[in-house]
Amino acid sequence: MEKYRCGLVLSGGGARGFAHLGLLQALNDSGIYPDVISGTSAGALAGVLYADGYSPKEILKIMNHGSRLEFMRPAMPREGLLQLGGIIKILTSVLRARTFEELKIPLFVTATDLNNGKPVYFSEGELLNPVIASASIPVLFQPVIIDNICYVDGGVLDNLPVRPIENSCKSLIGSFVNPIGYADKVSGLINIAERTFMLSMSKEISEKAKKFDLFVAPLELVNYKILDPEKAEELFDVGYKATIKKLKDSDITKLLTEKINPL
After folding, report:
1. Is 35 known to be catalytic?
2. What is the reported pLDDT for 174?
3. Exactly one of 38, 41, 171, 175 is catalytic; which is it?
4. What is the average pLDDT value for the chain, to the nearest integer?
5. In the chain, what percentage of residues exceed pLDDT 90?
6. Tens digits of per-residue pLDDT, 166-200?
7. Which of 18, 39, 48, 60 could form a Cys-Cys staple with 235, CB 3.0–4.6 A?
């Protein structure tokens, strides 16, 4: 049953997730507002703040704070090389909703259940831990324990989580910020872990892309590292311009208009 007019799916991609905010700004500037959001990792972070009532530019300001080290503190290497301390601090201080039910827009957050080897789509109950779990890249970040289950980044098994909403939306918009291109240098433990994870996240994307009425995946994002939040404004602009370019396609605009605002 189609209970929503417009659903938005946001992929993982680390710092490249700032491009999601540009996409959201472009949609809003064009009079398009999602009724439900499904996100993984960086997409879950952008999604939760937007669903909590913040504008894309407000989220950019909130998340574009400080350096890479402030976001990711070194951890004991037993379970992860880094901790998402900065992001936890930011979300704790700015999120007005404490549960999924308190959000202004319905949200689905994807995390990977390591114990049972499956993706889990959180959409009710306590909010913060599922979002942090969704962004916990394995090896780099410590897993999150929820109800005695060990969770890591949702992108491991579902980096473009259309599944929770694909049958309940009249139109679907997808934002994919993890293009895979040639990597000249792959050395060092963190770089190897980052590259390996990026490759695992890219699977099945071409097939999933067909499900969307509007699908934005800027190829130039390959020039940005997933662990470098210091180019947030550039990434925002990349997402904005790529979306505006897509929306200039009259066929796409007509299709979205007919589905979102039928006569």
Report:
1. no
2. 97
3. 41
4. 86
5. 60
6. 999 999 999 999 876 555 565 566 566 666 656 66
7. 18
Rg (C-alpha) for the chain, rounded Å, is: 17
User: CA 78, CA 139: separation in Å to the nearest integer?
Assistant: 9
Set 153, 158, 171, 175: catalytic member? 153
State pTM to two decimals. 0.87
Residue 15 vs residues 87, 130, 152, 167: alpha-carbon distances, Å:
12, 19, 17, 30
In the block, tokens 């997402």 appear at: 239
